[in-house]
Amino acid sequence: MQTQMLKIMGEKTPQAMQGATHALKNLSGVAEVIDSPSEGLVTVRFNQERTSIHELRATLLNAGYNSQALDAPASNEGSCCGGCGG
Questions:
Q1: What is the pTM of this model?
Q2: How far is residue 46's CA from residue 9's CA, in Å, rounded to a whole number?
Q3: Given a cut of 70, is residue 16 above it in pLDDT?
Q4: The pLDDT of residue 83
Q5: Which architecture, in CATH terms, is 2-70?
Q6: Are the beta carbons of 45 and 83 closer than 8 angstroms?
Q7: Where are the domains positioned within the chain?
Q8: Strand ranges, E, within 1-86
Q9: Averaged over 61-86, what is the pLDDT?
Q10: What is the pLDDT of residue 80?
Q11: Residues 51, 53, 55, CA angle at the centre, nearest 5°?
């Protein structure tokens, strides 16, 4: 599993963030999507053998959301992205 943080560009309303999250959850190979609406971020855990960062961003773009891939903190298998500092 790979973890990738994506910044949703433009409008960051709760509805927009839910739409972006929903689009990613429907993508084959995505295991988990955690959104942070106040920051305009989504954190995606996915199987890199079934999808890619490029496909994540293309899926968002097709759903009407431009995004930017951010460097995710290094994490060990089974742990979170490390964004909380824990």
A1: 0.77
A2: 21
A3: yes
A4: 52
A5: 2-Layer Sandwich (3.30)
A6: no
A7: 2-70
A8: 2-8, 30-36, 41-46, 67-70
A9: 68
A10: 54
A11: 55
The pLDDT of residue 6 is above 80:
yes
Q: What's the one-letter identity of residue 78?
A: G
User: Strand, coil or helix: what is 59?
Assistant: helix
pLDDT at 15 (0 to 100): 85
- Point out which residues pair with 35 in neighbouring strands: 42
Tell me the one-letter amino acid at 71. D
CA distances from 73 to 5, 77, 84 (A): 9, 13, 11
How many H-runs (helices) and E-runs (strands) does the chain carry? 2, 4
pLDDT of residue 14: 84
User: What token pair was written down for 73?
Assistant: 């903190």
